[in-house]
Amino acid sequence: MGQPVREYLLTLCVTAAVTYLLTGPVRKFAIAAGAMPEIRARDVHREPTPRLGGIAMFGGLCAGLLVASHLTNLKSVFETNEPRALLSGAALIWILGVLDDKWGVDALVKLGGQMIAAGVMVLQGLTILWIPIPGVGTVSLTPMQGTLLTVALVVITINAVNFVDGLDGLASGMVCIAAAAFFMYAYRMWFGYGIEAAAPATLFSVVLMGMCLGFLPHNMHPARIFMGDSGSMLIGLVMAAGAVSVTGQVDPDLLNVKAGGLREATHAMVPVYIPLLLPLTVIAVPVADLILAIVRRTWKGQSPFAADRGHLHHRLLEIGHSHSRAVLIMYFWSALIAFGAVAYSANNASMWIVLGIVLLSAVGLVLLLLPRFTPRAPRWAERMVPPRYRRLARAVVDPAGAAAEAAAAAAAEEREPVPAGINGATAIGDRSRFVDRRRAGSHH
Residue 424 and which of 82, 105, 266, 335 are 20 to 30 A apart at CA? Predict the structure, then answer.
């Protein structure tokens, strides 16, 4: 098992490295192309930020699949049509996202494009053939039923990831957490039970982790670039492809034979049910936010689709959490749901898992109630953490020096702002004021 782990690690590192290295040039290209939408009332960021981060993520996807196709234990995956189906659907959804990031695409057109991308994957064999239903057993699906269920799963997952992309680093981090949990049980099904049909999903989850990890350093607060719809829809499609591959391609009867015995087979069937639920680890938070938004807007007599600042991440910021802390809290809940589901699939008879989830949930609630608590690192570790986590001694401030610094700051604010250039230089002062002045000048 050591050799496959090294190959997966190599694929992960290559995907992350290519994505990371491409993001810088893509940012410059997005600025030059004008893919920097104006700030809306519901946006959290204060300066126009370039999009099109999905271009770098798609490059990482291609690089990861290319490297994996030449590795000893992974090249057998490419004897099937599933990697080709994934790449075809990803290319279509990526092109649609790039067009939306640059010029904007109507919501119905995007929905149609998502369905077409899912349909292309179905035509190439990436579809749900059967589903295990508790109490009923394995149910074989007709081609029409399999197509409709696959398209629905892909479209729901894509839009769930797109909906949760509201804070810097939120969507990529949550998807990376879900992909890590996905890899754990897919790898267990392949090498634990010897089911080769789980190999494509294992590879897809590793590539997805690499795409998110490579993009995160550029997207953490304050973000230098956004993934845009070209990135959010892309990683949503890759995640859905892994869920479809495990759920619809792994024969539950084969799993029963590999497990041996009725009790062992019943226990082994639990991981097969998990792919039906694990995409909900990404959907759970945005769906709860969506339901609350519909109730809130309807109660106020507004349209359910009217934009506002009442989403969960807005509420976390309003009660006193910092931007980074709000993101980490949502990471925590996603990890708790994802890895709790995987742990339960591995040992569903253990009460320790349930007690651990309850304990961690209590810790998460405490963190929500302490928004202004700032963690401090011990003195021996201060050099390894950002300055805001260090125990800095209060220095005696010279009144004359403080006055000079205040005057310099005031002078800097009065300077004429400079727009961001092709090399990624940020504006001096408040960029939103620059936009307003330029707009005012155009009216004259």
Answer: 105
220 within 8 A of 169, measured Cβ to Cβ: yes
- Which amino acid, one-letter code, is at 46? R
Distance, CA of 146 to chain centre: 26
Q: Shortest CA distance to 222 belongs to which of 172, 168, 174?
A: 168
**What's the whole-model pTM score?**
0.77
At 188-243, the pLDDT tens digits run 888 877 778 888 999 999 999 999 999 999 998 888 899 999 999 999 999 999 98
Beta-bridge partner residues of 138 = 132
Helix, strand and coil percent figures for the chain, each rounded to 5 = 70, 0, 30
Whole-number Å distance between alpha carbons of 73 and 64: 14
Query: Considering only CA atoms, which of 256, 292, 252 is closest in space to residue 276?
Result: 252
Tokens, residue 32: 């030059």
CA distance 209 to 206: 5
Note if the bond before 222 is cis, omega within 30 degrees.
yes
Residue 185: partners with Cβ closer than 8 Å, 6 or more residues away:
271, 274, 278, 342, 345, 346
| Contact in structure between 45 and 223 (CB atoms under 8 Å) | yes
Q: Where are the beta strands (DSSP E) in 188-316?
A: none
pLDDT in tens, 31-40: 999 887 666 5
